[in-house]
Amino acid sequence: MSDTIARVKPELSVALASGAIAVTPNLRLARHLRREFATDALARRQTTWATPAILPYGAWLESLWLDLLAGDAASEPPRLLRPGQSLYAWQRIVAGNSQGAASIDARAAARLAVEAWELVHSWGAGGESWRGWPAIGLSEDQAAFVSWAESYSAATRSSRGLHRAFAAAVACCFRA
């Protein structure tokens, strides 16, 4: 176990036992923490305990979105795109708009574009910040991303789709 988890573990165990939700960056850590919680419960000679709510970020985001839909907080909420749906949209955009690059691998470029899109929005530079990039002089790859991002934004807007990079912010607006 890492030193960080060992230091956090007592407080986390108490919070989880009280019904808190722990959000992890990946499924592997969520599984590890669930196992640690069970090990602690067994060490305290418990024979039963409530399963703690430990979710990887994607699953937590989906549960937040489902809560929003179930609560009728929004009359016509956008459709939350699953990662595969988003990737497919990016692949279609990249394949159809490769800026003259004949030998581009649309699948690989689309995966990188999704990663870039999520990074741009994860670090608070979201919205449509890529639109300001052409003024600063871009490389060929950056210019391609700006073009693809514009197309992706228009496609999701017209289909009332919502990329998961925006889901938490949108859901929180309705929950407030």
Describe the protein.
By secondary structure, the protein is mainly alpha-helical. The protein folds into 2 domains: 3-70, no CATH class; 79-175, no CATH class. Helices cover 61% and strands 7% of the residues. It has 7 helices and 4 strands, in the order αβαβαβαααβα. The protein has helices at 3-17, 27-43, 57-70, 83-96, 106-122, 140-158, 164-175; strands at residues 21-24, 53-56, 79-80, 161-162. The chain has a two-stranded parallel ribbon with strand order 1-2. A two-stranded parallel sheet has the order 3-4. Strand 1 (21-24), helix 2 (27-43) and strand 2 form a beta-alpha-beta unit. Helix 3 crosses helix 7 (164-175). The relative contact order is 0.12.
